[in-house]
Amino acid sequence: xxxxxxxxxxxxxxxxxxxxxxxxxxxxxxxxxxxxxxxxxxxxxxxxxxxxxxxxxxxxxxxxxxxxxxxxxxxxxxxxxxxxxxxxxxxxxxxxxxxxxxxxxxxxxxxxxxxxxxxxxxxxxxxxxxxxxxxxxxxxxxxxxxxxxxxxxxxxxxxxxxxxxxxxxxxxxxxxxxxxxxxxxxxxxxxxxxxxxxxxxxxxxxxxxxxxxxxxxxxxxxxxxxxxxxxxxxxxxxxxxxxxxxxxxxxxxxxxxxxxxxxxxxxxxxxx
Length: 272
What we know:
By secondary structure, this protein is mainly alpha-helical. It folds into two domains: 1-146, Serine Threonine Protein Phosphatase 5, Tetratricopeptide repeat (Alpha Horseshoe), CATH 1.25.40; 183-272, Serine Threonine Protein Phosphatase 5, Tetratricopeptide repeat (Alpha Horseshoe). It has twelve helices and no strands. The protein has helices spanning 23-40, 44-62, 67-82, 86-104, 109-124, 128-146, 151-166, 170-188, 193-208, 212-230, 235-250, 254-271. Helix 3 (67-82) runs antiparallel to helix 4 and helix 11 (235-250) packs antiparallel against helix 12. The radius of gyration is 20 Å and the shape is globular. Residues 1-11 and 14-21 have low confidence and may be disordered.
């Protein structure tokens, strides 16, 4: 099944500001950075080992209720989540959230990110009602703490829209995608990759409803942004080409679809 790009539903927390004053703190920073790097590279088995070590060091160096422990818990959960090991990820996410709420208060942006991550876990497992509640709480925190036009607000809107789209709640999803797009364009500029992500999601929403004439120019704009921002051989370009090809096949434009699919396959061969 071909997938459309959506806004990221999870985020790795960055290290706390300032350098630790002792060797264990420095070791934790090093391990945490390595775990994040391995995760981004898709090297999940090695990332798990390093993230577990980072958690052990954090608990020893900072105590069980420190925000750095919450960071390590979140990162470890995210790696399990990415591997489909949801039963292992959920309690780690929840413990991370509890620490952030205790130390930072219930309305801190890091609490919103934790809520967003748990919501994403629930959404992946089809627990849509639970996911919606957490996504909405995360959005409310972000709007209050960061303002209504912050990129993190757009991320929350995208995630709720994607949840609605999964449930065929298209009329509710569309205005959220459009609001997210407007925020990204204003905050990041019209050719930022996050703009392309949202355009692609909006186009996919239209394609699902057979609104092909509306979907096509949006897909094309998304593709143009990816090519300009990321280069012509990036995997996101391949994904965008595949989405456009699916649209063309839906509208009987087989030759155009084949050309796009061939180009996408060539890109994937290069980046494999």
